Amino acid sequence: KSMELTQAFLICCCLVLVHEGSCQPYLRLRPSPSDSLPVMDIIEHPDPEYDPREQDLDERTLRKKLGSNFDPNFMSITTPVQVNLSTQDPLSKFKPPGPIPNDIKKLDLSETPYGMRMKIGKKAKRKFLQWLWSYTYCPVVYTWKDLGVRFWPRYIKEGNCFNEKSCSFPEGMTCKPVNTVYKTFLRWYCQGWSRQKYCTWIPIRYPIISECKCSC
């Protein structure tokens, strides 16, 4: 059985190496639609005069203003506890959810680049395809980010694509964002200068990476 798994691995390696294009994956993976995520830190005006005052940070008032847009899974009013995600064994820390994708299931491991065919046991094929799914899977790693006092809620759970290793074989491709979700926050916005300025909370939509794929 171990010999069958080794043969399947070698065959798949050959299939990938002879595929046209050095950065063309053998799986049909979508490219990243944006290179600007996660959102870069906003450069704020350093003058504390542009910060909300204590009476502007009344939680009851702000909760009412934000309404149903308040999502405790992605936003926090108080400093959240950061979870330390070890990357020493990424395949065990981030196991792919759900069944093996059809793109991987349809791989013909019995056909070699030279037209020869090799019989591979079902169990060996299933184990190899599961390994391949784990290797090319691109998880979203979430960490809490402090947006500063001029946002409410102040803390957002931001997504990043896991990139501690290449997600392709041969190496060269990396995990990149392909889908985002938008969460509505309140932003403290000021117009004018000095005593003539007017400040208020306005709703803004903040993009968060929700899905990553292996891509060039």
TrEMBL record:
GO biological process: cartilage development; dorsal/ventral pattern formation; negative regulation of BMP signaling pathway; negative regulation of cell differentiation; osteoblast differentiation
Disulfide bond positions: 138-175, 161-212, 167-214, 190-199
Signal peptide per UniProt: 1-23
Any Pfam family hit: Noggin
GO CC terms: extracellular space
Compartments where found: Secreted
Domain of life: Eukaryota
Main localization category: secreted
Record's keyword terms, sorted: Chondrogenesis, Developmental protein, Differentiation, Disulfide bond, Secreted, Signal
Family: Belongs to the noggin family.
Subunit text: Homodimer.
Protein name as it appears in the record: Noggin
Source organism phylogeny: Eukaryota, Metazoa, Chordata, Craniata, Vertebrata
